[in-house]
Amino acid sequence: MENLQNQRVLIIGGSNGMGLATAQRLATQGAEVIIAGRAQARLDAALKHISGKAGAYTVDFSDEASLAQLFATLGRIDHLVITASSSAAWGSIRDIDGAALAKAFEQKALGYWRSIRAALPYLRKDGSITLLSGAASRVAIAGTAGLAAVNGAITQMGQALAKELAPIRVNVVSPGLIDTPAYDDFAPEAKQGLFDSIAKGLHVGRVGTSDEVAQAIEFVVTNGFTAGALIDIDGGAR
Ligand SMILES: NC(=O)c1ccc[n+]([C@@H]2O[C@H](COP(=O)([O-])OP(=O)(O)OC[C@H]3O[C@@H](n4cnc5c(N)ncnc54)[C@H](OP(=O)(O)O)[C@@H]3O)[C@@H](O)[C@H]2O)c1
């Protein structure tokens, strides 16, 4: 297991949900965690929940200039974790037109692509990159073809990049339904209804927590023999 003491880990998407849970875990291992996201207020609030060495920077990963500025400011990093997304491609193909799907790609898959490109000059030669995809790309569920397309792109780019960028270790973690602030916009009954209906189909009978995914991210970041892996943290969704 790699010792994270004094290792610098950048988490793009670290101000909320699974990214924040990852920051909390890695900071307790002695890492210097840098969380990045678009909203300064969310970053400030998140920092209060991280014990250890932590910093926060604003970035919009859909904007190459914003990413370039972030990395120029930070300098060297040892590990990159990308959890960010504001993608919303839920629904039938009948309701999602090409422009809506292109926007969903912009808000997730292309942001991952741009972030990796921007990070490479600054990333330790044998560091790691961890990407978050999603169970929609691993299980056939009606109404999730858009999510499947966006997350499938990440799963597949991760596999190829693991070969291309070695000895940087590239790994993909694929969450199932996880109770995070991503569902805060749902009406409470709609959210509970969604969670209950998904939970019924899972081996574990419940949806997941951010920390359960963060545990898998911690594993791939610190396990020096894990490269090109795809890890499903989905309660048995497949
Ligand atoms: N929750 C689930 O059930 C679930 C299931 C499968 C897959 N996933 C995937 O798992 C990952 C983590 O999900 P989550 O639920 O933890 O997300 P979340 O709670 O919604 O947090 C998303 C984070 O990304 C940041 N972000 C969004 N757009 C950004 C941008 N353009 N540039 C930089 N930062 C940006 C957000 O901060 P700002 O808004 O301030 O920028 C926030 O810190 C996502 O990739 C999601 O697609 C989630």
From TrEMBL:
GO molecular function, one term: oxidoreductase activity
Keywords, sorted A to Z: Oxidoreductase
Keyword field contains Oxidoreductase: yes
Organism domain of life: Bacteria
Pfam families referenced in this protein's UniProt entry, alphabetically: adh_short_C2 (PF13561)
UniProt cross-references to InterPro entries, sorted A to Z: NAD(P)-bd_dom_sf (IPR036291), SDR_DHRS6-like (IPR051122), SDR_fam (IPR002347)
Membership in a protein family: Belongs to the short-chain dehydrogenases/reductases (SDR) family.
Alphabetical list of PANTHER family matching this protein: DIHYDROANTICAPSIN 7-DEHYDROGENASE
Entry protein name: NAD(P)-dependent dehydrogenase (Short-subunit alcohol dehydrogenase family)
Species: Silvimonas terrae
